[in-house]
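call fold(seq) -> tokens
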Amino acid sequence: MSQLAADVQHFIRDGLPIGLIFADLPSAVSDLLNEGVATFLRRADRINLHEAAIVEVTASYTELFSQGGIGLSASLINEAAEAPKSIPS
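ret:
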């Protein structure tokens, strides 16, 4: 995560158009801010998105994988949709 933040900071310094979105990673972003490595994160606009319902995530995954021609079982899609809940914050 620190390397990604450092690379983004270099892109910004070089004037390249870049956007960075972190989702469901509050502890990782806090760790970066505490390290002081990526000062641009302190200046960045923060938008707090609502927590997506598992049913919404499951439907999205089902549609996206289907459009990509990838068949996954409903249990695997549900497991993927619920995985972020198991990440410690």
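DSSP finds five helices and no strands in the chain.
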